[in-house]
C-alpha cells in the first residue's frame, strides 16, 4: 500500500453503473481532482477505473466512486492500491 506520494488505484465498480452516465461522472470528478487514468465499461456490467495521483486525492476520488452519478446505484467498489506508473497524460473514457 502506498503511504505517501503518488499512487495508483485500480477499481472494479459493480451495481447499476452502465448506461447511467457513470463513466462521464467518474471522468469529471477525476479531472476536477487533477487525476490521470481512465474509466471503461466491462462486458460483465461492471466498470473499471484506473487513476493515478496523490494518495489524499485518490482517497477522495474513491468516495466519489462509491456515491456514483445521480442515476447510478453503486453496490461495491473494489480498490487495489499500487505505485503510479505515470503512463497517463489525462483522464479518459475508454470505449
UniProtKB/TrEMBL annotation:
It is an enzyme of class 3 (hydrolase). Residues 8-95 form the Acylphosphatase-like domain. Its EC number is 3.6.1.7. The active site is at residues 23, 41. PROSITE patterns: ACYLPHOSPHATASE_2, ACYLPHOSPHATASE_3. The keyword Signal does not apply. Keywords: Hydrolase. InterPro entries: Acylphosphatase (IPR020456), Acylphosphatase-like_dom (IPR001792), Acylphosphatase-like_dom_sf (IPR036046), Acylphosphatase_CS (IPR017968). It catalyses: an acyl phosphate + H2O = a carboxylate + phosphate + H(+). One of its GO terms (molecular function) is acylphosphatase activity. PANTHER family: ACYLPHOSPHATASE. Belongs to the acylphosphatase family. This is acylphosphatase.
Amino acid at each position: 500500500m502506498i503511504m505517501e506520494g503518488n499512487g495508483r488505484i485500480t477499481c472494479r465498480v459493480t451495481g447499476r453503473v452502465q448506461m447511467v452516465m457513470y463513466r462521464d461522472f467518474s471522468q469529471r470528478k477525476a479531472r476536477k481532482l487533477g487525476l490521470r487514468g481512465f474509466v471503461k465499461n466491462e462486458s460483465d456490467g461492471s466498470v473499471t477505473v484506473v487513476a493515478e495521483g496523490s494518495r489524499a486525492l485518490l482517497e477522495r476520488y474513491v468516495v466519489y466512486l462509491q456515491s456514483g452519478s445521480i442515476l447510478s446505484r453503486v453496490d461495491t467498489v473494489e480498490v487495489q492500491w499500487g505505485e503510479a506508473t505515470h503512463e497517463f497524460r489525462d483522464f479518459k473514457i475508454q470505449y
